[in-house]
């Protein structure tokens, strides 16, 4: 962990009041914690937009496994993207619904491409992609 620096910022009273309300709402311990979190969020967003470094994330898939050819198609796509897939978890939700969590690490565009390929398979009811950081650029 790098050395902690202290600095002061000038800010309008109204804006600071709004910030403090947000801090309370989100249960931050103090302004410093909230500010650090905002900076990290921006850095992750930038990393994601620029496509220049790896991200870590998770794709969540909900599908009906009884749909014809669906499992075969999903496996085919995942094998194609095996370089960015770290792990998958399959949960049998009920008689026909399955939930799959696919953990990825790679360039943001690859994660998006994988998520949209899976989404386009007939029988997939819902997909979501959550992107985080590998942590390296946030220290
Ligand atoms: Ni299942």
What does this entry look like structurally?
This protein has helices spanning about 15-25, 30-50, 70-80, 110-120; strands spanning about 55-65, 85-90, 95-105, 125-135. It has about 140 residues and is α+β, with helices and mostly antiparallel strands. A four-stranded antiparallel sheet has the order 2-3-1-4. A hairpin with a 4-residue loop joins β2 and β3. The structure holds nickel (II) ion.
Can you give me a brief rundown of this structure?
By secondary structure, the chain is an alpha+beta fold.
Gyration radius, to the nearest Å?
20 Å
Q: Name the strands of the widest sheet in spatial order.
A: 2-3-1-4
**Principal-axes shape call:** elongated
Taking the alpha carbons of the first and last residues, their distance comes to 6 Å
Q: What percent of residues are in strands?
A: 25-35%
Q: Structural class of the helices, strands and pairings?
A: alpha+beta
Q: What small ligands are held by the chains? A: nickel (II) ion
Point out poorly predicted stretches: none
Tell me, rounded to a whole number, the average pLDDT: 91
Q: Number of helical runs?
A: 4
The tally of beta strands, per DSSP, is 4
Helix share bin: 40-55%
Short key terms for the protein model shown above:
139 residues, alpha+beta, four-stranded antiparallel β-sheet, 4 helices, 4 strands, 40% helix, binds nickel (II) ion
What is this structure's SSE topology?
Blueprint: H1 13-25, H2 31-50, E1 55-64, H3 70-80, E2 85-92, E3 97-106, H4 108-119, E4 124-133
Antiparallel strand pairs: 1-3, 1-4, 2-3
This protein binds nickel (II) ion (NI).
């Amino acid at each position: 962990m790098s050395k902690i620096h202290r600095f002061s910022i000038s800010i309008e009273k109204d804006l600071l009041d709004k910030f403090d309300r947000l801090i309370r709402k989100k249960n931050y311990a103090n302004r410093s914690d909230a500010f650090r979190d905002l900076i990290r969020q921006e850095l992750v967003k930038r990393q994601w937009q620029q496509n220049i470094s790896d991200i870590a994330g998770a794709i969540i898939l909900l599908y009906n496994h009884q749909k014809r050819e669906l499992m075969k198609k999903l496996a085919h796509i995942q094998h194609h993207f095996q370089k960015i897939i770290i792990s998958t978890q399959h949960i049998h939700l009920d008689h026909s619904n399955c939930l799959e969590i696919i953990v990825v690490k790679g360039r943001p565009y690859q994660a998006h491409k994988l998520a949209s390929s899976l989404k386009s398979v007939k029988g997939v009811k819902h997909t979501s992609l959550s992107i985080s950081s590998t942590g390296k650029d946030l220290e």
